[in-house]
Amino acid sequence: MHAYRTHNCGVLRRAEIGQQVRLSGWIHRKRDHGQLLFVDLRDHYGLTQCVADVSNPIFKELEAIRPESVITVTGRVVERTAETVNPKLPTGEIEVAVETLALLSHAEVTPLQVAGEEDAGEETRLTYRFLDLRRQRLHNNIVLRSQLIASIRHRMIESGFLEMQTPILTADSPEGARAYVVPSRVHPGTFYALPQAPQMFKQLLMIAGFDRYFQIAPCFRDEDGRADRSPGEFYQLDFEMSFVTQEDVFAAIEPVLAGVFEEFAGARQVSPPPFPRIAFDEAMLKYGSDKPDLRNPIEIADVSEVFAGSGFAVFAELVERGSVVRAIPAPGAARRPRSFFDKLNSWAQSEGKAGLGYIAFPEAGGAKGPIAKNLDRERLVRLQEISGAKAGDAIFFVCDAPKLAAAFAGTVRSRLGEDLDLIDRNRFAFCWIVDFPLYELNEDTGQIEFSHNPFSMPQGGMEALATQDPLTVKAYQYDIVCNGVELSSGAIRNHLPDVMIKAFEIAGYGADEVEARFAGLFKALRFGAPPHGGSAPGIDRIAMLLADEPNLREIVAFPMNQRAEDLLMGAPAELAPERLRELHLDVRIPPKMAGI
Questions:
Q1: Residue 572: is the preceding peptide bond cis (ω within 30°)?
Q2: How far apart are the C-alpha atoms of 493 and 454, rounded to whole Å?
Q3: Predicted confidence (pLDDT) per residue in 410-457, tens digit
Q4: For labeling, which of 1, 216, 402, 468 is most exposed (least CB within 10 Å)?
Q5: Which helix (H) or strand (E) holds 347?
Q6: 204 vs 185: CA distance, rounded Å
Q7: SS (H, E, C) 10-34
């Protein structure tokens, strides 16, 4: 018999009744019934109930061992009585009558309960992450993450992609976030950077002729954490393709994403390919966001024309000065009590707005609310036509400058979707957001800036850059969105040096600066580059959605806290003076940050 186990703790069934077995694992939970002691033994694979009666010589020894200690038990598989069968447990029809016991490792009193759902707090959970990971929900999440990565890898290889690795120690490049830097010991005063993404390298691989590349790529960004973004590091399915259009990229990755979600979604429905394509401008109008949650059926409408010159002077005057009015329909809300509307008005004020105007349509031909009193019948009918509101519905209104109106209307849409319970929780709703503007106006400086990815190919190429108002130029840029979560951004790349120079010139960069800042890529583009494009869906965000978790921390084995600290390993940490000298570094902490 094996020294530690003949079976794991999740495999024994009725077929093994009568067999002599050996199991090893952690004591998950103990229940002392006086004459009988029940122990749930746990390992990676599951739980098995073990039992010893008071006449057993090992009863007292087993009784004294703390939970989370590691033991080996040997005994015979017996059938549970009908009243003690546990249908929720795969091994719930049997138990092991313990005959011998070996204590492999003694556990001290744990700072958090493994067998339970107590909220131990972030600091305790991350400081004792190895205990946190023993909890079933978190353990299952990490297994899910591993399985989905394996599935993605298999699907990409089957689709003809070649898995390749790109450097971790590289040069710093401006990509919109701060990079982590690594001092060079052999080149004093110089630094490597950890890659924010393999962007440059994957484009260079296309220029080198590899055609279809992918990797499960680690990326590093020195930015603040939030629920859907880990501080420090994250992983993405990075891929790139040559001789492709935007639609070719979509056609390549949609079956991979749809297939992975279908594999792990359980009973939840998944959008079948091809996913809907929604232009950026349309998304901002209809959903108030370029990351729309399509499980929410509410669609926003522009009703500025209805209020222009109307009797509702507040909106009429703002529209005349350039503001817009967005209507957010609320299905069934007209039958809600007045407190529902008052609560939303107070919420809008807490968001820094003057309030949230509304019109309720309790029955056909009827309209109620302060705004309704200032509109004639024709305008009220027009509002219903444009917004799609029916009898029993209400419409909420946002009036502001176009960008601000779009953003807050999107927030109102999300709030109404939650409050009215309109969101279908049993769906994974995918879409592509396309036709992003290449440039935007910095309202503080008045300068034209890149709005998304500066390396994207402008729609219309050089002619568009030379003849159009820059703020009207669209790019071959796209985002893949699922349930309101952006999984990745991507683009068809600008593979022509002269077009790149012109694109950066419009944003205020000279040719010499472009060549200096992006030397490796720019040099390669001058030696024959194929049209190419790709994307990089986030592994962490995919796992978060499939596990139905609200925070990335719940699907990462060893995450940092929100301050980018590893509480388990004690990072970041100071370096010893001799290491600093070796790296030619002198640390000077700003007075205000001392002690932080």
A1: yes
A2: 9
A3: 999 999 999 999 999 999 999 999 999 999 999 889 999 999 889 999
A4: 1
A5: helix 338-350
A6: 28
A7: CCCCHHHCCCEEEEEEEEEEEEECC
